[in-house]
Structures are given as structure tokens and as C-alpha cells.
């Protein structure tokens, strides 16, 4: 891959680099400098000392909100469920010294991303409460920066900062204060989505800085920065080397980046390269946090493709061409985050191969053992339901069709105990298979040998399917790790996934803050080795796990404030939904009115050239993508979690992952609405 920096001089020498009006951050938008200034305070035109005073007041409010949020973190405190063998304790074990020499049967049962986070916390010597606050603070800052870059509204950016920093999930017992990976999902996804938005605007801004325009005048002649040319003569206006000189009355050439030197553009490009690398590294961490993180790949891929989209067309208009050099450079920049992610994930897999003999992030949901389990799911059985994924007859057929496993009869004997009312529900077979293997001569100590044995068994099952000795189910399967379903069973998912989606906005149920059950974990009476090792890794005072930061603010006070925040966010979210609906109606209406006035037929962006209505529709489209994507993930998460029949646990699985997409989607919708009417103008 050609390094983007090395082709920069070619970028700036090339005379056919595309020109895109990106003043409002979204391709196709157009605004004047005055319009941008008027939009800075959430659509209200405020100037001079009054404007400065309002901004200063906003920063003061943000500072107070930050101090209050820090106090909340230092009063509620994180808690560690040391007795959750396959969850909290497992992830903590992955962070402790000696992990890579472990022979524990669950050592690779889950991805190690959270273990790396805990390892870093232990190395830093900083209290886990402060680290979680820092992650939420970073999420709030990046969301504020993203909103500012998208809409240039200081007031809205400040609102986004406080809105994310005080998100109620930060105080929830399982999704906020529990030392478990699910409590990290919300802030890291806020950071990821905000980072993608920032990356979009950075790339689009670079295109604007590098462009060279062919500008037709209204009279049919072509206007260059310092001369006028008759129509038909091709003239290029380089806006990076001092364009923007006065032209004859009635014609103008906008030059937002006039006078930018090659050095400045090089710094911009270097900044994008650095940010792209950081974004890719962050996505690698997010990807390694959870076994099903593959669901985020289409979202990230779409964002990177959208960043490059403006230069992928051969011709943007009759007079504006896109050079091959420009395409290569922009695409290289947009591919860089993905390359960094792949490289880092590959390094993690290499480390596992070096220490455990398997090139996998985990061996419970990926690899040959997972393949064996997925083949059991795929065996046709009248006893398979949305609760019982691996009925006893399917397990029996699988072992009958895999002669190589007869060398380890203990595995089959262990699995045959799960019959009748004791049949395994959901994906519990993936855990019970680990137990079965470990009590056999094969054991889970040698992960590489387990992979070899089950690779042979899988080949035998595939032959049995091919020869008709095993019959495949005709149900619909969307993933090898999920149970196949009939159309009617799929239809059962719409209502609960819709309710969970709505609850993420309305915050009506399943939130728990300050539960009495947590008192046990804050107690210092238990001295189990796993607990002591974990608390030490978290840099906590074992003798005082719930210290009071200030004498006038108790833990009970913090819990009361947290519940008040939940109530406030319920009202705020509903108001944002109302604004989002208004934004859609207003943007479409304004675009249609402008099209009719100009005698245009509405067929696309060209019908209303560069108007704020189309800019708003662009951001609304992106908001709709985030909102729809959140629902899709919730739907497929219910495909997995339905067998639990427990709304609280489903809330634990789903909410932290979809809330950031919904919240940022609503922020984009609000920004689009305010941008449309900023300063009382629409263009």
C-alpha cells in the first residue's frame, strides 16, 4: 500500500483534483462564513460580548458538570464479582501475571480484550474508579468534538459533552459500576462512533483543502481568481495557493482555505494519518472485548467508505473531474484504520498461538470446537426449540457420526447426562463441552491438540451430511453460533426487540442502581484468593472498598442523584425524538419548496444545490443509519437471548451496545434541525 504522505506533492501538483463544497461538514452543503458564525450557538445569532459571555457560561457549566461527575465516580465506586467463575473472575484471570502459563480449562473461553484493559489498570497504579471516569470523560470530549466538526455549534457541542458524560448507564449496577466488560461497552462505543464522525469530517476537509476547481460563471463564462475567460475555455482555480482574488461583479469564487501552504496541508494529512491509526487501534480493542464483535465491522466499513465516497466518482459534475491520484490517496487514508485493526488483532492471535498453540481470539465460539457445536445446531431434530438449541438426540447423532471421538468416550458420557428436563438450553453446550473435554484424557490443557481432534471430527460430520447419514435442518441460520429458526420463530423476536429498543430511550425498566445485593461485594470480610488478587489489580484499598470522597456527599446521596439523572434523561430523550421528527419534516419541506421556486424537479442533490436542507437531510440519513443499525443489533441479540426469558439479563447484554448508537443518532438529528434554521437562514 502506498503511504498517503508520500504522494502529497503529486496531490497538490495535479490539476484535476476534485472540488467539493464541504463547509458544513457534509458533502453538498454550502454556507457563508457569517452563516457559520450565526450557527455557533445552537441556531441563535448572538454576537459580540454577549456571545462571549454565553460561551464562557457554557464552559463553566461543563466544568461544574465534570467535577460533579468525578464526585459521582469516587462515591458510587466499582465492584468486582470475584465469585462469577465464567464471567468476572475469568476476565480478571486473563489480566493477572502468569496467565500465559495457565492450564485453566476456561483460559480461552472468552476474548481477552477486557483482560488487557485490566492489566493496564493494574500496571498504572491508578484506582479503577478514576480509570472508568477517564474513559467516560474521553467519550464525552470526543462526542463534543464530533458534533462541533459536524455542525459548528458550540452550544450543541457543550450539550453533547454533558449528555454523554452523565449518561445514566455509567451509574447502573451491571452496565456502569461492575468490573466487567459490559460496563465498558457504552463508553468505548461512544468513542468509536464519535471517532468515525471526526474521521469523516477530517477526510472531507482534506479534500476541500486540496481541491482545484473549474468554476463556471452565471453568464456562461468561466471565472478564474484573477481573470475572466470566455465559455468553453477550461480554466482551473487552485484554492490552495492564494485563490480568492476579487472578480467582476456578479461572480465570486469561494476560497475558505485560501492561502494554505503545502506545509499546512501536510500537517493536516499527517494529523489524519495519526488519527486513523489511533482509530484503528481503538477498534481493535473494541473488537477484542466480545466474541460477537463482528457485528460492528459493517458499521465501521460503511463509515470508512463514506469518507472516501466523494472522490470515487469519475466526474462530480460537468466541469469537475476526480483524478486517479486523488482517489488513491483518499482511499489509502480511509483504509488505514482497517489495516491497523487487522494488524493488532493479528498480533493478539499470534500471542495466543505462541502461548497456547491456537491462532484464535477464543476457542469457545471460534475454532474447531465451535465448529463441532455449530454442526450440532445444524442437525435436523424435532426436539430443537428456541430454548433448547442442542437437544439430546442431536448430540447423540453427532457423536455417532464422528468415529474419531470414540478415543475419548468420557466426552460423550459426560454430554449424555443432559437429557429430558436437563437438556442444555441456549449456548450452554459450549461451556459443557469444555468441562467434558477437560475431564477426559484429552483435557483442555493443550488447546492445539483439542483443535486437531475436533478438526478431524468436523470433517467426519461433513461427510455424514454429504452422504445423507445426517440431515441438515431447513431452518434459517444467520450465524454458526446461533440456533437456526423457522420464519414464525423469527417473527417472535420483533416485539421484544422493539420493547428493548424503546426502553433504551425511555429508560422505563430494568435499571438498577445501588442494589442491596452489592453490599456483599463492598464488604471487606471475604478474603478469597481470587478476590484479593482482583482487588489488588484494580488498585483498590482492600480494607475500605467504598470510601466517602467528601463528608457532605454519601453513597446514598449519589444513588439518589443517579435516579434523578435517569428521570431527567427520560425527558431529554423524548424531546430529542420530537426534534428528530421535526428535522425530517422540515428538511424535506424546505428542500421541496426551494426546488419548486427554482423550477427544478426533485431528483437528488442537484435539485437544490448545496442548500442547508440537503445538508440536514444528509446528516439525518446518517442518524437514521445509526438508529436502524442499533435496532438490527438488538434484534439479533434477542435471537441469542430469548431462551433466557429474563428481561434484566437481556438488558445487560443489549443496552450498553445500542445506547451509544441511538444517542449519537439523536444528537445528529438535533444538529441537523438546528443547522437548518441556524440564524434564520436555510442556505
TrEMBL record:
Keywords: Membrane, Transmembrane, Transmembrane helix. The chain crosses the membrane at residues 54-82, 130-147, 154-171, 183-207, 265-287, 293-312, 324-346, 574-596, 617-639, 651-674. This is Uncharacterized protein. It comes from Bifidobacterium margollesii.
